[in-house]
Design goal:
Alpha-Beta Plaits, 4-stranded antiparallel β-sheet, single chain
Length: about 120
């Protein structure tokens, strides 16, 4: 059986940031702009702390079977929690959305490639 790409989006909010933490996030904001958003095995976080306290963590994993998808989701949540806690950021209200890319419909460009 082939491996399927699973993309997980973990969303949440920073909680009780100190002035120093907020300043650090603001200083690093350009590198965490949505323009650099990417799904990857290491995970990628984006935020706009100047506007709101929310963040999005994008994670990509693989699953051989349907029963492996919740494992990938748990891995994504753990990666997001590790990213935040290793930097000393408190967080709240984590939610996850998981997409099996093999189940997403092809757009017009993908259909053209498939026919070629």
């Amino acid at each position: 059986m082939s491996s399927r790409t699973i993309r997980v989006t973990v969303r949440g909010a920073f909680d009780v940031l100190t002035a120093d933490q907020r300043a650090t996030l603001l200083a690093d904001a350009a590198g965490h702009d949505v323009a650099y958003a990417a799904f990857s095995p290491a995970g990628s976080i984006t935020y706009d702390i100047a506007t709101r306290p929310f963040f999005t963590f994008r994670y990509e994993g693989t699953a051989a079977e349907d029963k492996d998808i919740p494992v990938v989701t748990a891995e994504a949540e753990a990666a997001a929690e590790q990213w935040l806690t290793s930097r000393g950021y408190a967080f709240k209200n984590l939610t996850s959305q998981t997409v099996d890319m093999s189940q997403t419909p092809l757009g017009s460009r993908g259909r053209r490639r498939e026919r070629a």
